[in-house]
Structures are given as C-alpha cells and as structure tokens.
Design brief:
The chain has four helices and three strands. It has one domain. By secondary structure, the chain is of the alpha+beta class.
Length: 91
C-alpha cells in the first residue's frame, strides 16, 4: 500500500497547488505498526505563505480525514454505537 496524497490548492492564485498532506503507507513494518499499535504516520507540507490559523485548519482537516476514511469503527458498531454517539462514548 502506498502513500495517500491530498493536495492543497490556493484558490487565490488560480488553483495553484501549493502544498499537500500525506498518509504514509506501505511496507511490512508500517502495516504491522498500524495493526498492533493503531499508529499512522502523516506528513503535512503547508503552503509557505500559510498563517498559523491556516496551518491549524490543515491539521484539523487531517484529523477529519483520518476519522472519516481510516479509523476502524467496528468496535463501536459492536456496542451498538455509531456516529456522534460513538465519539461521545469515548469521552
């Protein structure tokens, strides 16, 4: 399994690609880490002109991508919980 790349485009500069976010994948060692330790590696390359608020927003977007597409929710479904109820149960 390779890297999943999410490109960042600047709408103010005619949709120019200015950065990206990557979920690092591939390799047996990475696969074992994900299975045994529930760890993933990400790389964020924000635009050079991004403010601190924009960088914080990129990190929030990365967490949303992780939860939406990569987090295994099979344990929540066993308990009969889904969606916001499952997230609230973890607190």
């Amino acid at each position: 399994m390779g890297d999943a790349v999410y490109d960042i485009y600047d709408l103010r500069r005619d949709y120019e690609q200015c950065g990206n976010m990557k979920k690092k994948g591939g390799g047996c060692q990475q696969c074992m880490k994900e299975m045994l330790l529930d760890l993933e590696n990400y790389e964020v390359n924000p635009p050079s002109h991004a403010t601190m608020d924009e960088k914080a927003l990129l990190l929030a977007a990365l967490m949303m991508i992780e939860l939406q597409y990569y987090e295994d929710r099979s344990e929540d479904k066993k308990d009969g919980l889904e969606g916001p109820a499952a997230a609230a149960a973890e607190l």
